[in-house]
Design a protein that fits this description.
single chain; alpha/beta; two-stranded antiparallel sheet
């Protein structure tokens, strides 16, 4: 199955039709992120047959012009958010990854990292404003499809909400890495030192350059 096939299949379901109605109204009447054409950007950049890693986020950054359709990633020229800053700090400590100048994670997506938020849209200034509108059902369908893949895939679950996803994962070919969220509130309680980057590469048998970004 391709992502497009999965999306078309989900669009036929009643929950998704209700979700589309809600999203249409939100984007028509309010400022929402990411911009409309980037809602499914993660699936455009990381086809199902290329997925090596699934990195789960919560919902897009609620600040205008920051979110760009990939979990944790931001548009060019935007100040690096604190959570992503902490991820870069851990990457430098773990695999000597040079600290990048940009927080655009497109290269990770191209390399096979599905940067997936559980909720794909948000109203500007209102975190989790699109919670329980249907996105969680859609992204569960995505996770279920990846779980069926027989090749090795690493699921990186950061924070309590993401860790709940392990209940959907039962394929022994996959590695589940759990760690606290990299936000300033929890990074010092187990995220730093979690070695999520090296553990991923070691399991997949790829070099640490897998995580390298253009600086």
């Amino acid at each position: 199955m391709t992502w497009q096939e999965l999306i078309e299949k989900e669009k036929e379901k009643s929950y998704f039709k209700e979700l589309e109605e809600f999203i249409n109204l939100e984007y028509e009447n309010k400022k929402c992120m990411p911009i409309r054409k980037n809602i499914f950007k993660a699936f455009e950049l990381t086809p199902l047959d290329k997925v090596k890693v699934v990195l789960i986020g919560q919902d897009p950054y609620p600040t205008e012009n920051v979110a760009m359709g990939l979990a944790f990633s931001t548009n060019e020229g935007v100040k690096i958010p604190k959570s992503l800053h902490n991820m870069f700090v851990e990457a430098k400590s773990d695999i000597s990854l040079e600290y990048p100048k940009s927080a655009d994670l497109t290269q990770w997506a191209i390399n096979g990292v599905l940067l997936l938020n559980r909720i794909l849209t948000v109203e500007v200034g209102k975190p989790l404003s699109h919670k329980n509108k249907g996105w969680e059902m859609f992204t569960k369908a995505v996770i279920d499809e990846i779980n069926l893949c027989e090749r090795k895939i690493v699921f990186i679950l950061l924070g309590n909400e993401a860790i709940k996803i392990k209940n959907y994962l039962n394929n022994k070919n996959h590695l589940i890495i759990e760690a606290p969220h990299p936000s300033p509130l929890s990074a010092y309680h187990g995220f730093f030192g979690s070695k999520i980057f090296s553990r991923t590469c070691d399991y997949l048998g790829v070099s640490y350059d897998f995580w390298r970004l253009t600086c």
